User: Fold this.
Amino acid sequence: MNNNFKISVAQISSVKGDVSTNIKMHLNAVRKAVDSGISYIVFPELSLTGYEPQLSAELAFSKNDPRLKPLTEAAVDYKIHIVAGAPLQNDSLPCIGEFIITPNGQIETYSKMNLHPGEEKYFSVGKSYHSVSFGKLNIFNAICADTNNPNHVEACVNMGASIYIAGVLVSADGYETDTQKLESYARKFSLLVAMANYNKPTGAWVPTGKSAIWGPSGLIAAADRTQNTLVVAENSYSGWKGATVEI
Assistant:
């Protein structure tokens, strides 16, 4: 058991297409996470660019994109895993990607496997699952609409998931339905389930914040609608404990 292991989701906002400014926001959150002893931090869907499908091809990142260098350096210096969202270059349309930056400076990627209606105009579908292991804890990554498909989480569980964590963009209209599903996964599969949402408008959407983490017994911790916040879960002998940390 990985006692005192801490994982977090970062509730932030992003500036439309301004990767440099958005990376600075990410680094602020990472430094706060390091101060709190966190080993794995996940940001919202497309966090490095904002949710801007029309700009995705123009802004798409390669796997070892030089724009990621400040985050890579931070991951190495602080010995933390950083999971940030951006369009990922592909042979055709880009994918909605996550860049999983490891403490040894390696960059792995995950691409969203389930698209919302309309996203197929701008994005390709991902084909492969992604996980990171910390001892006996296996973290499986997801992005937004992945979490709406029970087959996605079930496949992760069948591959050994103990933590299921997603960068999302969820508005007020979809929040109750989406979070009920996430909580049900935590209970049904005895998982830790977490989601990182935006707290300010991005693209044509008005996210509702309230990033949250659930365990098998229900809600562990949640942010409010507008805070820049880390929502944190810590593994202990008595189970998962939650907290929020202002960024």
Remarks:
- The longest strand covers residues 81-88.
- The two ends are 29 Å apart (CA to CA).
- The CA atoms of residues 21 and 180 lie 33 Å apart.
- The first helix runs from residue 19 to 35.
